[in-house]
Design a protein that fits this description.
alpha/beta, six-stranded mixed beta sheet, globular, binds adenosine-5'-diphosphate, binds magnesium ion
């Protein structure tokens, strides 16, 4: 292994019951580079990174991981060990403790101690200096539960950065970030690179790879299909490698013929916790149309769609019309009866019951179709849910496994499946 290689995977294979998540993975990561890792949902990206982070310790996979020229042998409860080795990870799923503050989360398990008790002044000042150094838009004493999802993600990143990592792994960090936050993250990565930190970067946004990475490794079905300098690639080539065939057009538009107005929102005002969150919103949606709602984090996008769905804020004035008829939707049950579906911003908070099976999560919003919640016809529930899961290519060993065990992308597909099964007239995706 040459001096400038910091990490090398040799024939790494990782099996889960019924799934080979990684198969014979071999590639190298150079010291100080930003190395992109891409692949479709379920390709094995997160699993590979969890091996580096010690979530799957030595012995739970086969093959070799070389780190600074030595075999990485993280033992059980290896997560702290990975941190000691200088490997820090920001997971795809948020891992913060909602009831704790930003400072407590960042230093969780390694709080500065002064004569046997936590040194709160130092905890806050050290947190403040990290937040200032990277110009992150949260305060040490903010309780995580009250933050927006983008701010939570920034806090996760601050936590990883506070560990003085040699290798920083970011697993889809930007899915919840605003453009401004993404720009800041890109600056942070450049700064870290200038300091010699190696970064492994996973995203589903092709432009980010081409903006920031030096080298790009593509995984498909757990196998490495390419590992080469980003400069030698184009977005079209990468997509082709990911899906295994040439893609002429990435998002074929199809022929859509929008029909009559189905939803009309007129001068809608709504308030929440004493604050006006919608200030006169008006728009019309036609049947068969895809309507985009743009705005920065905090501009009211989520508040708008949640309000339409009858959750969250209270409408104070204005009108919502469905098929020309004025409606007042109070709560998600009513929204569903009106033919609305909502894939929420935070699938953990509003979309999924993680310990429950794929089948149950898909059918949950639709129990009425299977005889109601008291007497569920389990055969038709299973058949319908399985069909939806297959249509959306949810990757899992069986539809009976807990949703919490799936990759983030596959969890998102389960949320989609649930709403598609309810056959909505209008599907809102936040
Ligand atoms: P990616 O991050 O590229 O979307 P993952 O590494 O999360 O993919 O998943 C790779 C494959 O391994 C998928 O088929 C996924 O369903 C499966 N998988 C991931 N984690 C587990 C687990 N804890 N138990 C069972 N299967 C898993
Ligand atoms: Mg993943």
């Amino acid at each position: 292994m040459s001096e400038d290689t910091i990490l090398e995977f040799r024939n790494v294979t990782k099996e889960f019951p019924g799934v080979t998540a990684l198969s014979d993975v071999s590639f190298k990561v150079k010291r100080g580079e930003i190395h992109g890792l891409c692949g479709e949902n379920g390709a094995g990206k997160s699993t590979l990174m969890k091996i580096l982070a010690g979530v799957y310790p030595y012995g739970t996979y086969s093959g070799t991981v070389l780190y600074n020229g030595k075999e990485l042998k993280l033992q059980n409860s290896a997560i702290q060990a990975a941190v000691r080795e200088g490997i820090a990870i920001v997971y795809q799923e948020l891992t913060l403790v909602p009831a704790m503050t930003v400072a407590e989360n960042i230093f969780l398990g390694r709080e500065p101690v002064e004569r046997g008790s936590i040194d709160w002044d130092r905890l806050h000042s050290e947190t403040r200096s990290i937040l200032e150094k990277y110009r992150l838009d949260v305060r040490p004493q903010d309780v995580v539960r009250n933050l927006g999802i983008g701010q939570m993600q920034m806090t996760e990143i601050a936590k990883a950065l506070s560990e003085d990592a040699q290798v920083l792994i970011l697993d889809e960090p930007t899915s919840a970030l605003s453009e401004v936050e993404i720009d800041r993250l890109m600056e942070i990565l450049q700064t870290l690179k200038a300091r010699g930190v190696t970064c492994i970067y996973i995203t589903h946004k092709m432009n980010e790879f081409f903006r920031i990475t030096d080298q790009l490794t593509v995984l498909r079905d757990g196998k490495v299909v390419s590992s080469q300098p980003t400069a030698e690639l184009t977005p079209e080539k990468v997509v082709g490698l990911m899906v295994g065939r040439e893609m002429k057009e990435r998002f074929p538009r199809g022929a859509r013929q929008p029909g009559d107005v189905i939803l009309e929102v007129q001068d809608l005002h709504a308030e929440w916790a004493g604050r006006e969150v919608l200030k006169g919103v008006s728009f019309a949606l036609r049947k068969g149309e895809i309507l985009g709602i743009a705005g920065l984090m905090g501009s009211g996008r989520t508040e708008l769609v949640m309000t339409l769905f009858g959750e969250f804020a209270n409408v104070t004035s204005g009108a919502v019309r469905l098929d020309g008829k004025p409606v007042q939707i109070k709560g998600s049950q009513a929204a569903m009866r009106h033919g609305l579906g909502l894939v929420p911003e935070d699938r953990k908070r509003f979309g999924l019951v993680l310990p429950q099976s794929i089948v149950r999560n898909i059918s949950l919003a639709n129990l009425g179709q299977f005889g109601g919640s008291l007497a569920v016809d389990e055969d038709s529930e299973l058949a319908a849910s399985t069909r939806m899961a297959q249509d959306l290519a949810v990757k899992a060993p069986s539809v009976q496994v807990a949703v919490g065990s799936l990759s983030g992308g596959n969890q998102q597909k389960v949320v989609m499946a649930k709403w598609l099964l309810s056959n909505p007239q209008i599907l809102i995706m936040d």
